[in-house]
Amino acid sequence: MDTSIKDDPVDSTLEYVIVPFQIDSHGVSHDELETLFDSLLAHFSNANIQLVQSNRGYDIHLREISWNKLETAITLTKNGNPLCDRILDSFVATIDGVRSFGLKGDKRVYVGYNKERKVTNRKDKESNRGTYFYAKDAPYMTESRSLSVDLTDKIICGDSETVMQDFPDNCVDLIFTSPPYNFGLEYDSQNDADEWERYFQKLFGILDQCIRVLKYGGRLVINIQPLYSDYIPSHHIISNFLMERKLIWKGEILWEKNNYNCKYTAWGSWKSPSSPYLKYTWEFIEVFCKGTLKKEGKLDDADISVDEFKKWVVGKWSIAPERKMQEFDHPAMFPEELARRALLLFSFKGDLVLDPFVGVGTTCVVAKQNGRSFVGIDTSSKYCETARSRLAEVLL
Ligand SMILES: C[S@@+](CC[C@H](N)C(=O)[O-])C[C@H]1O[C@@H](n2cnc3c(N)ncnc32)[C@H](O)[C@@H]1O
User: Which residue minimizes the CA distance to atom 27 of ligand 1?
Assistant: First the structure.
């Protein structure tokens, strides 16, 4: 990149965005500071960025900035003096902390990017409409309880609706799970082609226990695939049930598996509107919260990196399906990477994670690898055994 060329000045009729910048200049003279920022900002047009002294210290005036160019300019400006280098790093961090911007290539555009927005008075309208009306007056108590030590970090064999009856209310921080989808898979100990009403009745019994054991502010994150060939939108039916129970729908993640080997159409309707068959290469992950959207936790226990956070809050995760199902002799595992993203994004280090359909233990393996406690339940003693031996191999 030719950093000697200044970037294109933006429309200078638009007001700058002003960002306060605290400089810890202890040990750096005013002249040194001036030289440092003169040489950094020489790479940019001052119509796009300026550092201005104000009565509270310094302000960064921003219109737009190329992020690659900023990173290169910072590297070129660093002079080996650790105090100066730290000031430059905090300059980048301060700009990075501004979360409202549009993107134009690699440029972050801070001014004018939302002038096409059609909704005016957005905040007022939001407050008139009200958020999650369906979950108001939820009857949940706020205090947390602890799961007993004998049940913590264990794989328990049994029907999770019954097993969870021994758990106290409000003891789990995050439930990450994938129930059987009733597709007709060959599980070890379970009929996976039940009549639909019976299937949902059983699932809802288990979900009621999940809601009870979840802490206030805890999350229920559930991976679901509808059975398109039966025209059963399981993800909607389950979401509707959870909303009726006054959980707050936080959002939906598409797990893009990129598996294109699905059939094209119902027989006799090729290339005809008579009954085209829609194709899906993804599954759904529904995210719900109990009582409040905000989860209590210490900042030090948030172990997701900046890059992971930026990538994973975009609700479409491209992850290949699990390739070790034969090795573990289970027909419907999800990949560790899926569990890792859910755990790092929705729980803190030290939290308790529950999977009531744990299969061969993927959620618990990832919990253990990432400093969370876990409890996993499955009806199959064979899958539970496999889960326990996988866990025995996880090094702390
Ligand atoms: C989709 S699989 C989960 C696989 C898991 N995510 C993994 O990666 O290994 C669903 C699991 O739920 C278990 N299961 C079905 N009904 C159950 C119940 N009532 N209680 C506990 N587990 C159950 C099945 O044995 C199956 O292993």
Answer: 359
